[in-house]
Fold this protein.
Amino acid sequence: MNEILLRSLTPEVLTVLVRRGADFAAAEDAVQEALVEALRVWPAAPSAGPGDGEHPVRDPKGWLVTVAWRKFLDARRAEDARRRREERVESEPAPGPAPAVDDTLQLYFLCAHPSLTPASAVALTLRAVGGLTTRQIARAYLVPEATMAQRISRAKRTVSGVRFDRPGDVATVLRVLYLVFNEGYSGDVDLAAEAIRLTRQLAARVDHPEVAGLLALMLLHHARRAARTAPDGSLVPLAEQDRGRWDTALIAEGIAILQAALARDRLGEFQAQAAIAALHADAPRAEETDWVQIVEWYDELTRLTGSPVVRLNRAVAVGEADGPRAGLAALAELDASLPRHAAVAAYLHERDGDLATAARLYAEAAHKAPNLAEVNHLTRQVARLNALLNARRPR
Amino acid sequence: MAKYLLLKHYRGAPAPVNNVPMAQWTPEEISAHVKYMNDFAARLEKTGEFVDGQALAPEGAWVRYDGEGRPPVTDGPFAETKDLIAGWMVIDVDSYERAVELAGELSAAPGAGGKPIHEWLELRPFLGAAPTITE
């Protein structure tokens, strides 16, 4: 059984249980147990999937619903017994095909509910919508499994009073999916691919240009993945990437999705970010990048978000479009304590020919860098510039 | 099995043999160093002796309780190279001798000129759980 295929059924199975009257927290536990059981008992069949005649489980979703519902009832009976209540006989609905309509969308809203912290919303979304196990999520975020289990059950308690039938704000869901795509560490789960899968699933259910914008943004960045790191694991900056290694199919798909979204004239920050990524993807060589248009998109993004980080990136684009002095002037308007400010300043000073200042600023940037890959990358820049400066020095 | 901390810091240890700061290495030497560290951790994962490895940002803050109803007091950062903890690795090994052997290998990570740094690492045993059978 294809694990992804299995996991893609998670939200539908969960909503079936909720519609039958199970409370969300208990239903979610039951579905998790059913998934674990499916992974254990379903034989691995290389090409088999739902609808595939060779597959031993003809109706995986029906199977999951049946097993999850039984798990739910078992848990409830155990709970009832534990509380020494009188045994109530649960009326089990007649087994049959699960309804085709699903409120997976409601599940997305619930798991990204604004009352949850970002870390809790991410964990709950990955489990209840993504169908990942607690262990997989814990490994992906480098925390003990017990910690992750607590985070998830606290999150479920937090949303326990939330009505399941009210639409939420899609923007909160998009922020959670963006976090899943952008921040993850290790383990056997590819979080970027998982974020794309969940965003595709969302885009199929809700017609919103920003959902499309986020999906396009993810696809365009994912397309560069193979070129983003060298074989030794070091970061390769955009300008130095081997563009032959970019995934053209993902780029084409991302651009098509973005264009359809932009045509609806309801611009948002994810569409604007995707537009910038698309302009990079459009350039066959770094020198052919349309920086003037990129600056315009950064102006839009600044207007939409007011974010100082956006203005920092804009300064880089201005430096490319109008020269490093213009970039430095744009940078001068920003707070020097912003993350990556020193790295941007170093880059612009090097472009301006001031290698000594650039080396000093790269060293400062390495000192302040937020992750080891960036520390190593920036330290390499210092080393490269020092080598150049030493070669210039008269002996 | 016993857990040990291999702590990389600059507090009181004599200068290493190959004491050239990283910023003066070539980019290739930096890559070789990073690769050595990654390979070392990967090898310990394979032997079942790796527990954890983390690098720390060089700057932090001092924080202390400041009384009921008051926000904690923060101070710093105090960026003093001699006091810097760069990172650590935790290993779970069969013997002290094995821990020393691994610390020696980690200290041989290449630096300037591709030569081992001979960096001093502090090796500290964890205080484990009390055993059940004591007599």
Q: What stands out?
A: The interface with chain B takes residues 232-234, 363, 366-370, 372, 375-376, 379-380, 382-384, 386-387 of chain A (CB under 8 Å). Residues 77 and 89 of chain A are 9 Å apart (CA to CA).
